[in-house]
Design goal:
Blueprint lengths: L1 H12 L6 H24 L1 H7 L5 H16 L1 H9 L3 E6 L8 E5 L6 H11 L6 E6 L8 H7 L3 E3 L3 H12 L10 E4 L8 H14 L12 H11 L5 E9 L7 H6 L5 E10 L7 H25 L13 H17 L6 H9 L3 H11 L9
Parallel strand pairs: 1-7, 2-5, 2-6, 3-4, 3-5
Antiparallel strand pairs: 6-7
Length: 370
C-alpha cells in the first residue's frame, strides 16, 4: 500500500500523467530508435567507420557524422515535437560549426541528450563526442553506436582514464574535422548526498562550497584543453536546468511525462582567454563553476536564466528530413530494393552478391555456386 502511494505521488509530480497511450507511444518510439540504430550499424558502420578509414580518417568522420547525425536527429524530434518539451536557450548566441570544447553541469542521467538539441541547431549534431561512463559503451546497439561515434569511455579512475583521454583526444586535432567535444567536469550526476560529500571535501581543502553543482575535476578538462588548444575556436560553458527542479530520467523522456521545460544557458569563451598553465586553467574552471552555481541559484528563484531566446524553435522541415530517413531505414530492414541498401552494397563492391541474391528469390539454382 505504501509503495503504491509513493508511485501515485511520483506520477502526480510529473508534467504529464503516465497514461496507456503514452506507454504505447513510448514503446513504439523506443522500438523505432533501436531498430534504426541497429540498421545503421549493420549497413553503414562497416563502410563509413572501417573501410573508408583505411583511405581517409577525415572523410570517414564526415560520412559517419552525416549518416549517424541523421539518426541522432530523431532524439530532438522526440523531445520537442512528440513529447512537446520546451527547450529554452539563453545566454550568448553562438555561431554554427565551430570547433569547441563544451563543458556542462550534470543534473541527471539524460543531460547529455539535451545537448543534441543545441548541436542540431548549430549544424554539429554528427560531430558531438562525449566523455562518458565506460559501462554505457557496453549497452546493446546504443553502445556500439557510441564506439562508431568515437565517444571516450571513462572508468572514473584518474590513473586509468588520463592515458585513454590523451590517446583518443590526440586523434581529434585536425582543424578540418568539425568537433564538439563534451565533458561533465563533476564526473557524476548531482544528488543531495554527493553534494554534501563535495561540500565536506571543499571545506577541508579550502575550496569553494557549492550548493547546486559538485566540485569539478580538473585533470580531464586540462588534458583535453592542452591537446586541442591550437585547433579550437572556443570553450562553451553550458548550464542545464529543469522547470520546477524536476530532473527527468530516460524513461520520462521515452514516455513523454517529463520534463515540461529544459533551460540551457550558453556562455562562449574564446580559447585565447583561457589560461595555458594547468594551475591557472584549473583555477579558471573552479571560478567557472562558482559562476555556474550562482546562475543555478538565480534560476531557482526566478524560474529562468537571463537573456532567453537566443535560438529558435526546432524546424519542422528538419524533422521531416529525419522522419524520411527513418522510413527509408525501416524499409531497408524488410526489402533489398531500398536505395540505401543498394548504395551500401555498391560501396562494399557487392553488386554481384546482390544480383545473385535476387536470382535466388526467383528460384535460380545456380546461387549455390557462389
Amino acid at each position: 500500500m505504501e509503495l503504491s502511494q509513493d508511485l501515485a505521488s511520483e506520477n502526480k509530480s510529473k508534467h504529464f500523467p503516465l497514461t496507456p497511450f503514452r506507454i504505447i507511444r513510448g514503446v513504439i518510439c523506443l522500438a523505432i530508435l533501436l531498430s534504426t540504430a541497429f540498421i545503421c550499424l549493420i549497413y553503414f558502420a562497416p563502410v563509413a567507420s572501417v573501410l573508408l578509414r583505411f583511405f581517409s580518417t577525415h572523410y570517414s568522420r564526415k560520412v559517419v557524422a552525416f549518416l549517424f547525425g541523421l539518426w541522432l536527429g530523431l532524439w530532438p524530434f522526440l523531445f520537442e515535437k512528440i513529447n512537446e518539451t520546451k527547450v529554452i536557450f539563453s545566454g550568448q548566441h553562438v555561431p554554427p560549426r565551430e570547433r569547441v570544447l563544451l563543458m556542462a553541469n550534470h543534473r541527471t542521467e539524460v543531460d547529455w541528450m539535451y545537448l543534441w538539441d543545441l548541436a542540431l541547431r548549430k549544424g554539429c549534431l554528427g560531430h558531438i563526442k562525449y566523455l562518458l561512463k565506460k559501462s554505457l559503451m557496453k549497452l546493446p546497439v546504443f553502445g556500439w553506436g557510441f564506439h562508431v561515434l568515437e565517444f571516450i569511455p571513462l572508468e572514473r579512475k584518474l590513473e586509468v582514464d588520463e592515458p585513454v583521454i590523451r590517446q583518443m583526444v590526440s586523434t581529434f586535432t585536425n582543424p578540418q574535422d568539425p568537433l564538439w567535444l563534451t565533458l561533465f567536469p563533476e564526473g557524476t550526476d548531482f544528488t543531495e548526498q554527493k553534494c554534501k560529500s563535495s561540500q565536506e571535501f571543499a571545506t577541508k581543502n579550502g575550496l569553494p562550497v557549492l550548493k547546486n553543482v559538485l566540485l569539478p575535476k580538473t585533470k580531464g578538462f586540462y588534458a583535453c584543453l592542452e591537446i586541442l588548444r591550437s585547433s579550437l575556436d572556443a570553450v562553451y560553458d553550458v548550464t542545464i536546468a529543469y522547470k520546477n527542479i524536476q530532473c527527468p530520467t530516460l524513461l520520462d523522456n521515452v514516455f513523454g511525462v517529463d520534463p515540461s521545460e529544459v533551460h540551457i544557458h550558453i556562455r562562449r569563451i574564446p580559447i585565447e582567454e583561457i589560461p595555458a598553465s594547468e594551475r591557472e586553467a584549473s583555477a579558471w574552471l573552479m571560478d567557472t563553476f562558482q559562476l555556474k552555481d550562482q546562475l543555478l541559484s538565480n534560476f531557482i528563484v526566478n524560474g529562468h536564466f537571463p537573456n532567453e531566446g537566443t535560438d529558435e524553435e526546432l524546424s519542422t522541415a528538419k524533422c521531416l528530413v529525419y522522419l524520411v530517413y527513418t522510413l527509408l531505414l525501416l524499409l531497408t530492414s524488410i526489402t533489398d530494393h531500398n536505395p540505401l541498401l543498394v548504395v551500401t552494397m555498391k560501396c562494399l563492391g557487392a553488386e554481384k552478391v546482390h544480383r545473385m541474391k535476387n536470382d535466388e528469390q526467383k528460384g535460380d539454382d545456380d546461387f549455390e555456386l557462389l
